[in-house]
Design a protein that fits this description.
alpha+beta, OB fold (Dihydrolipoamide Acetyltransferase, E2P), Dihydrolipoamide Transferase, Chloramphenicol Acetyltransferase, 7 helices, 22% helix, globular
């Protein structure tokens, strides 16, 4: 019996992708879970597997086509033995309109005022404890990542089912004041820039759009404080260079790897910076794991892969993992799962330059560390000025969770640890 093959849900917030490669042809016999095509999404390149063992009877798309989650892309004839009963784990969200988005530069569109009539209305009731919201697990996780109580999001799907687009529109309403009892702020249309010279409009890339939405939400909802300090890394930098002179290319230490390990120890000392705020239940969620996201600059935009359980690994192990995942990220070979679950983030701009910056906390995390370029500075040692290599660190944190004194203590703890390199563990903890 003929069976349709649909694009499955692949990750938080992903509603469409571009087909970049077909792995089968009509008439081919395929095994269960065999890759049928590769699709580039906003976040990564993912493989779409076969839901059955059988024969491909029709291919409805070509390379370069944009496809939506839930869209039928192929058909096949399953074999009786081992045939899957469904091509979907659950009902997909409503497919989003397909638009071309291959350029990452910011356009200059005219901004129209947000109208409450065009947005899904928020629910005024509260879902009883233990009752699952009418949304897929991926949409529920997407809401949690944005710090949204999905139980108050109005669903536009059949039976009030909530899609990721409903969550996005809810966030926009909150930022505009539509769900807080305030009047939406009046949007000021952009001027006609062509009056003063030639212009070019380019669509936002998928990565840039998701980043813009997440950062706007974080900026609007979390009262942020940034604490600055400087670490003397003269000793650790000399150690790093000596170590790298004997290390293999894949095992070379970077300052980011060292910072990840030091941050893990600091988070153990200050667990409130490794938490998330649940205002819906008036609770602070303290995490027993430490997963650190590391911002990676790519041609498609900023991506943040996550290193897992960094408090259980030595610096050498972390250096190898970081080098590998950074390379995969720049090549867009990481999976969406590689960018989920972070509890703290580090953004190191030292390789580019600058003396300091204010990183935005990546909700629902409560803290992020920004790193700028280290420079030689004269430091008074009690008898004379001596040259020391000092690295600026900027810690941004959610002031609802972290007090200023604790933020300063956390950053000073990190600086002290970096200034005492012999205290850093080079082997994996037992």
């Amino acid at each position: 019996m003929k069976q349709d093959i649909r694009v499955p849900e692949v990750s938080d917030g992903v509603v469409k992708g571009t087909v970049i490669g077909l792995s089968v042809a009509v008439g081919d016999r395929v095994e269960f879970d065999q890759t049928l095509l590769e699709m580039e999404t906003d976040k990564a390149v993912v493989a779409v597997p076969s839901p059955f063992t059988g024969t491909i009877t029709a291919i409805l798309i070509d390379e370069g086509d944009e496809v939506a989650i839930g869209q039928v892309v192929m058909a096949g004839e399953p074999e009786e033995a081992g045939a899957a009963t469904s091509t979907e784990l659950e009902s997909p969200p409503e497919p989003a309109p397909v638009r071309a988005e291959k350029v990452s530069r910011v356009p200059a569109p005219t901004v129209a005022p947000i109208s409450a009539k065009t947005l899904p209305p928020p629910r005024t009731d509260s879902t009883p404890p233990g009752e699952v919201a009418p949304a897929s697990p991926i949409v529920r996780r997407f809401a949690r990542e944005l710090g949204v109580d999905i139980h108050v999001v109005g669903g536009t799907g059949p039976g009030g089912r909530i899609s990721d687009q409903d969550v996005r529109e809810f966030v926009k309403r909150v930022m505009a004041g539509a769900d807080t009892g305030r009047s939406p702020a009046a949007s000021r249309p952009l001027p006609d820039f062509a009056r003063w010279g030639e212009i070019e409009r380019q669509p936002l890339s998928g990565v840039r759009k998701i980043t813009a939405e997440a950062m706007a939400y974080a900026w609007a909802t979390a009262p942020r404080v940034t604490q600055d300090d400087k670490a003397d890394i003269t000793g650790i930098e000399a150690f790093r260079k000596e170590f790298n002179s004997k290390a293999t290319p894949e095992g070379k230490l970077t300052m980011t790897a060292i910072l990840v390990r030091v941050a893990a120890e600091a988070l153990l000392q200050f667990p409130q910076l490794n938490s998330s705020l649940d205002l819906a239940n008036n609770e602070l969620i303290l995490k027993s794991y430490i997963h650190v996201g590391v911002a990676v600059d790519t041609p498609a935009g900023l991506l943040v892969p996550v290193l897992r359980d960094v408090d259980r690994k030595g610096i050498v192990t972390l250096a190898i993992e970081l080098n590998q995942i950074a390379a995969k990220t720049r090549e867009r070979r990481i999976s969406p799962a590689d960018m989920e679950g972070g509890s703290f983030t580090i953004s190191n701009l030292g390789g580019i330059g600058g003396t300091g910056f204010t990183p935005i906390v990546y909700a629902p995390q409560v803290a992020i560390l920004g790193v700028s370029r280290a420079e030689m500075e004269p430091v008074w040692d009690g008898g004379e000025f001596v040259p020391r290599l000092r690295m600026p660190l900027s810690l941004s944190y959610d002031h609802r969770v972290v007090d200023g004194a604790d933020g300063a203590r956390f950053l000073r703890w990190m600086c002290t640890a970096l200034e005492q390199p012999l205290n850093l563990v080079m082997e994996d903890p037992a």
